[in-house]
Design goal:
Two copies of one chain form a homodimer.
Chain A lengths: L8 H15 L7 E2 L1 H8 L3 H14 L2 E4 L3 E4 L4 H20 L6 H18 L3 H17 L4 H20 L3 H5 L2 H13 L3 H28 L1
Antiparallel strand pairs in A: 1-3, 2-3
The structure holds a DNA duplex.
Chain lengths: 218, 218
DNA sequence: CAAAATAAAATTGTTGAACAATGTTGACGG
DNA sequence: CCGTCAACATTGTTCAACAATTTTATTTTG
């Protein structure tokens, strides 16, 4: 998927660590020891630290002076902020999209993947496909920088998902909503699609905030 | 302005370099020698390289493998992309703003600075004040992440400004437009303000693209 | 003389070790 | 039980070294 071979080592490292982070290999709040990771990944401390800076800038890690780096624990405020961003990026992108945009095909493909995964109860893949769906929505806007920013924000959101432990509740209900959204766009009704998307985002935000609040209470 | 004393050295370095970059201390396309900057700034290569990574991720520097880092030369495509982003962030932020938002006061203050600077023909400060004005617009949206992203994008845009050499043409005409925009917002007419802003952005984009095209031809 | 091939120099990429500064742990005494 | 202080571990930063690559200079060749 990546032609990582050409990339400098710290970036490869950062990509590898990011995969682990959004894949749930580490738990939020966990401290990442330089020594331990250097040994495990077989790179020097300097190289690892450069990768840490990258991921810190993306919001996936937090750096506390003289104490080390920690996996970000998404706060309620962070989730609220992320959903505000999502509404501001995704809804206009969809509202102004034209149905033949290549990203629309990616939206459709993501929905089909999600349906198939749901049928075999593979909630992990349902979540991934859902993310591809929304990434494609932002790509409708045809802005390299916007897409890059969205990738960053959604990676941070994934961290929040791993705080919760009911992936079915988290992703399953949204497959059909995505289906409806892409269908509306394909029918040339982008405004209606955007309205559905906003409903989706509000509902999703509430679900996650509620789950997060329950977790904080416990 | 910054409490840089507490920040780790690479970040302080990055801030310092960023100031230089958006202040025009380097010219786009210029190569930054590690050795030379290490000597000049009195830091080690490792530390400098960490700062480079940060700025590369922000789009201010470009990293070519085994060849070093170069000051980004903004392309026509980059400028178009940046203005697309600006329209998508600034216009909705302004349209949904309420006039008593603290950021509105910052908009007003920026306009006053710009007027004063224009009177004494200090185009550099006019440009800075103009940037503060638009930063404040994004802050109306109350999103930490959005503001951070905008800071990054506008830093990149500043690079493009330094490619041009007529700061008066670039900034002077917009002081009055900004004045009109904040006045509309203060009068409780955010929709009209947003419409004016869109006009502003379109006009500004055309000016810069034209200047950039002239420069490319020469 | 021009162009290609080659050798030399300079630069970046990565590592490892060193030491200072800061944080953490645990024993000790009140 | 709580605070103090020393021992320990970890991070922050620098330095030196070497491999890999690019740039420059030189030589060879047509």
């Amino acid at each position: 998927m990546d032609q990582d071979l050409a990339l400098p080592l710290p970036q490869k490292l950062a990509n590898q660590l990011r995969e682990g982070l959004i894949g749930g290999a580490f738990t939020p709040g966990q401290r990442l020891s330089e020594q331990a990771l250097c040994d495990e990944l077989d790179v020097s401390r300097n190289t690892l630290r450069e990768a840490f800076r990258l991921l810190t800038k993306e919001g996936l890690l937090e750096h506390k002076a003289n104490r080390g780096v920690f996996v970000t624990t998404p706060s309620i405020a962070a989730v609220i902020d992320i959903y505000r961003v999502r509404r501001m990026l995704e809804c206009p992108a969809l509202a102004h999209a034209y149905p033949n945009h290549p990203a629309a095909a990616r939206m459709r493909a993501a929905v089909q993947s999600a349906r198939a995964a749901r049928q075999r109860l593979d909630w992990r893949e349902v979540g991934s496909a859902n993310m591809r769906f929304h990434t494609a929505i932002v790509e409708l806007a045809d802005s390299e920088r916007l897409s890059g920013f969205y990738a960053q924000v959604s990676a941070e959101l994934r961290l929040a998902f791993f705080l919760l432990d009911d992936p079915e509740l988290l992703h399953a209900p949204y497959v059909d909503m995505n289906e409806a959204i892409i269908s509306l766009l394909e029918q040339g009704r982008p405004a209606a699609a955007a309205a559905s998307l906003e409903t989706y985002l509000n509902q999703s935000e509430r679900t996650i905030l509620a789950a997060l609040a329950r977790r904080a209470a416990a």
